[in-house]
Amino acid sequence: MKEKHDAELMRLVNEKNRQAFEELYDKYIKLVYSFVMKFCNGNEDKAKEMIQLVFLRLWTTNSHYDPAQGNFVNWLLTITRNICIDYLRKEKRHIEHHQEEHVEIADPANPIDQRVDMNDIATAKNKLTTAQRKLIDLLYWKGYSLSEIAKLEQEPIGTIKSRLHQALKGLRKHLELEDIK
């Protein structure tokens, strides 16, 4: 069956041909996986669920791919993108609904509930090393995963994790000092 084109494989999948489905899966799992991992910022649990939904949709719905409309890869990635968007929207609605049910008033006597001033954060961040500041920016503000940062910085993942630990420890220390003042 390895000689079959994607359109023929999809036709067979619609007829519930398991071998054709397995061939499409084997052929495109890496592409779908990398697309979904980028889409959900490296959250592997979410990615696994989304990937399962993509291939479940191909198997359970009578999806029709038309080669005249474009490449199979583009069609598959469009389906993948739509599933990712739907998944994240549903998750966001669930979180918002859950937060509405559990709205609590902050206790000013509890230091955990106190809001940290953005100026305090900026001041504390400026006390970190350049490498630590860059790591914080890449991870929290630009959405890179630790493994992506390790590749970008051409350093071992362990070094990046250690730097992150030290950076967060430094931020906590500097923010606690700001609270005392």
Structure commentary:
By secondary structure, this protein is mostly helical. The chain folds into two domains: 6-101, Rna Polymerase Sigma Factor, Chain: A (Orthogonal Bundle), CATH 1.10.1740.10; 118-180, Arc Repressor Mutant, subunit A (Orthogonal Bundle). Helices cover 72% and strands 0% of the residues. The chain has eight helices and no strands. It has helices at 6-14, 18-39, 44-60, 72-101, 118-126, 130-141, 146-153, 157-180. Helix 1 packs across helix 2, helix 2 runs antiparallel to helix 3 (44-60) and helix 6 crosses helix 8.
Task: Supply database-style keywords.
2 domains; Arc Repressor Mutant, subunit A; Rna Polymerase Sigma Factor, Chain: A; mainly alpha; 181 residues
Radius of gyration: 23 Å
Report helical residue fraction.
over 70%
> How many strands appear in the DSSP assignment?
0
- Write down the CATH topology of the largest domain: Rna Polymerase Sigma Factor, Chain: A
Largest sheet: none
Query: Order of helices and strands, N to C?
Result: HHHHHHHH
Helix/strand/pairing category: mainly alpha
CATH class descriptor name of the largest domain: Mainly Alpha
Q: Helix count?
A: 8
Question: What share of residues are in beta strands?
Answer: under 5%
Superfamily at the CATH H level of the largest domain? RNA polymerase sigma factor, region 2, helix turn helix motif
General form:
elongated
Low-pLDDT stretches: 101-107
Task: Give a short synopsis of this structure.
The chain is an all-alpha fold. The chain is built from 8 helices and no strands.
